Amino acid sequence: MRFLFALLLVCARLGQAGAATDDARAVIAQVQERLRADASWARYEMHIVTPEWQRSLRFDAWDDRKGRRFLIRMRAPRKERGVSWLKDGANLWMYLPRLERDIRIPPSMMLSSWMGSDFTNDDLVKMESLVDDYRHRILAEDGQTITIESLPRPEAAVVWGRIVHVVGRDGLPRQDDYYDEHGRHVRRLIFSAPAVMDGRRIPTRWVMITDAKPGHRTELILKDVRFNPPLPDELFTRANLRRGLD
């Protein structure tokens, strides 16, 4: 009888752990859906702040999350206007209008800074793989937030050894902390300034802070967005990438 009771207790705990894992994954998936939908068009401002200089850029982004494709085109400043990126699956290309050529970004450059910011090329390529490339579990809950830990699956080709997410009970992300494979904290992404845009309440200010660069930060400001617009396949082609801005 004791053995049977112990077995039932173990099964119950395993069931609770499985349910908690499913719940954590669902929360992460819901955050991704809220921020990106199945597809979107968005207009951003990006402010890069360092102790020596500051820089601001403006760009548009077309995101086909389900198809794992996106297109980004720089609008300003003038010397960057028309510089564009195309992602299709795991491939990332950059178009340089001054050279009138597109360049494939190799794997060795995925951790390089994107446009001098605290974001990386890898952030662009792996933005849609978080849900499936990591195992998720709830670390803590209170009346305001849920804290979730994401650990990479053994077969996943990812950079981070651990990500800790803080998500509000309202479904809005609050903060993501990124750790390397040795457990060292590397950077923090803070979400703020929630507002209703195109019918959804979403954070409109994202700030990335990297531990190794004191005094540096990158602010990404969402200026406009349209969720689930029609995005033709022709948009996500290298031929279209090379067209640049009109």
Characterization of the model:
With 246 residues, this protein is of the alpha+beta class. It has one domain: outer membrane lipoprotein receptor (LolB), chain A. The chain is 20% helix and 45% strand. The chain has four helices and 13 strands. The chain has helices at residues 2-36, 121-125, 130-133, 238-241, and strands at 39-49, 54-64, 69-76, 84-88, 91-96, 101-104, 134-141, 145-152, 162-168, 173-179, 185-197, 200-210, 217-227. Strands 6-5-4-3-2-1-13-12-11-10-9-8-7 form a 13-stranded antiparallel β-sheet. A hairpin with a 3-residue loop joins strand 7 (134-141) and strand 8. The radius of gyration is 20 Å and the shape is globular. 21% of the residues are buried.
CATH class type: Mainly Beta
The number of helical segments is: 4
Poorly predicted segments: 2-19
Radius of gyration: 20 Å
Q: What is the arithmetic mean of pLDDT? A: 91
CATH superfamily: Lipoprotein localisation LolA/LolB/LppX
Largest sheet: 13 strands, antiparallel
What is the gist of this entry?
The protein is an alpha+beta fold and 246 residues long. 20% of the residues lie in helices and 45% in strands. A 13-stranded antiparallel beta sheet has the order 6-5-4-3-2-1-13-12-11-10-9-8-7.
What is this structure's SSE topology?
Blueprint: H1 2-36, E1 39-49, E2 54-64, E3 69-76, E4 84-88, E5 91-96, E6 101-104, H2 121-125, H3 130-133, E7 134-141, E8 145-152, E9 162-168, E10 173-179, E11 185-197, E12 200-210, E13 217-227, H4 238-241
Antiparallel strand pairs: 1-2, 1-13, 2-3, 3-4, 4-5, 5-6, 7-8, 8-9, 9-10, 10-11, 11-12, 12-13
